[in-house]
Amino acid sequence: MPDRRRPLLVGVVIALLAGSFSFVGWAQLRPSKPTAATASVIGAELRPDPGPGVDPTVAPLMAEPPPIGEAAPPASVPVTEPEPAAQPEPEVVSVAGSHLRRGVARPISSPATIADVRGSRIGLYSTPGQAEADDAFQNPTWEGLPLVFLVQQRQGDWLEVQLNTRPNQTTAWVRAADVSLRSTSQRIVVSLAARSLTVYDGQAVVLEAPVAVGTSSTPTPRGNYYIDGAVRTPDPGGVYGPYQLSVAAFSEVLMSFGTGVGQIAMHGTNAPNLIGSAASNGCLRLNNADVTRLANTIAIGTPIQIS
Description:
8-stranded mixed beta sheet; L,D-transpeptidase catalytic domain-like; 3 helices; globular; mainly beta; SH3 type barrels; 7-stranded antiparallel beta sheet; 19 strands; 13% helix
């Protein structure tokens, strides 16, 4: 009699085997849910491994990775403050043809102090308290004008003053006993770009005027200077107008001009159409009415800033 249980047993075995294969196939096709470990690998250039128990979606961002070819910086780099830049010493240079070592003029605060030389000759010193002078100036000047300086500072019985000589903005020391002092609240400001001149008395504007300035090849020198003389011209309708106001500044390209030494001035003109342009050899030209007002407004020794 045949055994009826054998086919049943074989069927059961076949069914079990088929079920196993189908489960494996389903398991291989179904995507697995990311774990914390796999989440820390996804986008690993942006996020570090947050460690166990930390939600990887809120882990902090890493710093931007270093550029390709450069090593990553160490975890901590000691920070050191840069050394402060060395402060330059005050400019003191030798003056050609003289033993004098000069300083350089600075902007003058208002009111300014003016020094009128008393005697026919004044000694110039490189430092205050020096026993013997390094140079001397005659009074009056070679043009016959009274010798005037602009005071920079005072140390006891000594004054540092700006001189009307080359190089521009030269200063030296003089004995206070050799000069008489006075003050002025006036100052002149010249803008070469705007081609304008403004006179202040304290903070108040007392005069404004357009000017002609030096050409590109004979520029008006920039710097801090003062008015060291004023003269009425013999021909009010001529090239220089009715007045010339001498500035303690010298052309940086013309060592001489006419019969002079290349010193610039503010003066009138017989070509008013050039006012407001770059037309001069370095001087500042004004309309004749403006230079007349200027000459009757300011004192000799008034500081002037040209920029």
